[in-house]
Design a protein that fits this description.
This protein is α/β, with parallel strands linked by helices. It has helices at residues 5-15, 21-28, 32-42, 61-68, 80-83, 120-129, 150-169, 171-190, 193-202; strands at residues 51-55, 72-77, 89-92, 107-111, 136-142, 205-213, 218-225. The chain contains 9 helices and 7 strands; from the N terminus they run αααβαβαββαβαααββ. It has a 7-stranded mixed sheet, sandwiched between helices. Strand 4 (107-111), helix 6 and strand 5 form a beta-alpha-beta unit. Helix 3 (32-42) crosses helix 4, helix 6 (120-129) runs parallel beside helix 9 (193-202) and helix 7 runs antiparallel to helix 8 (171-190). The longest helix is centred in the C-terminal third of the chain and has 20 residues, at 150-169. It is globular.
Length: 226
Amino acid sequence: MSDTARTRHARTLFAGIASEYERMGAALSFGQDPRWRRFLVDRVRAAPGSSVLDVASGTGLVARALEARGYRVTALDASEEMLGANTGRRVLAHAERLPFGDGSFDALTFTYLLRYVDDPGATLVELARVLRPGGPIASLEFAVPAARWAQPLWRSYTRLVMPAAGSIVSPAWAYTGRFLGPSIESYWHEHPLDEQLAAWHAAGIGGVRWRRMSNGAAIVVWGRKR
């Protein structure tokens, strides 16, 4: 699949932060990112030994948790640097064009993905394509808090604290700290929650449920392929 400006930017971004990704993700979220991922993994209700595709797997935090529950996991990511720290079966590929046949997996997870693709709806269709009918699918994404009281605090943290904290670690993390807040806010402005959930339904996913985490800083969405 040909690169676009968005996918090239994502690859460059993650290449610079791969080595500190897990530590900084936990620190910048005040330890909440691991909790969000555990909740995501809990939404995967499949039989032991089921095949699970973990898309945007990164360094493998979700993949390892899935493996610990007895699933056979394939970790897929577009960043060679991030995937290099992963374990198990690894596939370097884009989520927008998965190198698997229809219904190849019993379950599917993806994390912090849709802000980095050009067409979130089409990407959801592609993810659902490789999932068998009835299989669970679950995602984790950053969010803008819905509560008005929380929004100024969230904006101050993402615009001021995160860039300052990132600058202590490296120039790449300083850039990431500056990028994340506007990126998250722009995505939620362009794709409100109702539109996001509609895209899940349009992709053939039923029983869609969602839960905001940590006062709305993140959201987990899950369902099953119809």
